[in-house]
Each structure stands twice: as C-alpha cells, then as structure tokens.
Amino acid sequence: MKKNLKAIVSIILVLGLLVCLTGCGENEKKQEAMTLLNENREVLTAQTITCEEGVAKISIIGAGMTSNPGVAAKMFESLYSANVNIKMIATSEIRITVLIGEEDVNRAMRTVHDAFDLAD
User: Fold this and answer.
1) pLDDT digits (tens, 9 = 90+) for 61-75
2) What is the C-alpha to C-alpha distance for residues 82 and 78, in angstroms, rounded to an integer?
3) Mean pLDDT across the stretch 71-98?
4) From CA 91, how far away is CA 71, in angstroms rounded?
5) What is the DSSP string of 74-95?
6) Cα separation of 38 and 48, whole Å?
7) CA distance 102 to 75
8) What single string gives the DSSP state of each residue in 23-73?
C-alpha cells in the first residue's frame, strides 16, 4: 500500500463517516484509492463507499475568522442566494471549505467574492 493511501485510511479511521478525496489527479489514483477503501470497508465500518465525480471545492481562509462572528453564515447565505447547492462542509479555526457541483464553481466564486467585497 502506498504511503499517501495509508494516510487516507488513517485519517478515515480517526474521523469516521464521511471522507472527501480531492486532488487525486488521474483516474488511476482515484481507482487505487477506491480499491483500498473498499478493501478496508469493514475496518472502516462503512456500509458503502462511493465516489462522486464533478465536484469542486471553494474555501475561505483567514486567521481573523475566529474573532469575526458570522463569516460562515455570510458565505453560506451568499451561496444560497446564488442557488449553489452545498454538498459538504469542512471547517477549521482558519478555514471554511464547501464541496459544490463543478458546474457551479464560477458562480459560487463570484458570489463569495462579492459577499466579502473581494471583487476586482
């Protein structure tokens, strides 16, 4: 098993139910990751493992998020207003990332930029 795929499985074991594999690149690596996940499905206590194509990540990042309440709400409201469906949300102290449909990425970026006055 390759080192990066071992790391994926280790992360899954710690985090649990939902995993987003992004940036895997070509189909061969995606297939390798899916094979590894399926081989370890019982250990992961997952009923099913699926791969969804055609998704994109949009993130807002900044150290000031913890001291400025409402940042996440502003992002989510702007995406809702632009009729962008959020498939998954991941957060940390300095980052909010959403997984959206690939077809919505340009509209989502424009609306989030506008919400935070970042356009132009």
Assistant:
1) 988 888 888 899 999
2) 6
3) 92
4) 12
5) HHHHHHHHTTPPEEEEEE-SSE
6) 8
7) 18
8) ---SHHHHHHHHHHHHHTHHHHT-S------SEEEEEEE-GGGGGSTTHHH
Query: Which of the pair, 93 or 76, is modelled with greater confidence?
Result: 76
Residues 6+ positions from 79 with CB-CB distance below 8 Å: 86, 98, 100, 108, 111, 112
Task: Report d(CA 14, CA 5) in Å as an integer.
Answer: 14
| Statement: residue 15 has pLDDT above 70 | no
Tokens representing 72?
Answer: 């996440």
For the ranges 7-16, 45-54, 107-116, the one whose mean pLDDT is highest: 107-116
Distance between CA atoms of residues 73 and 116, nearest Å: 12
DSSP H/E element including 111:
helix 105-115
Model confidence at 39: pLDDT above 80:
yes
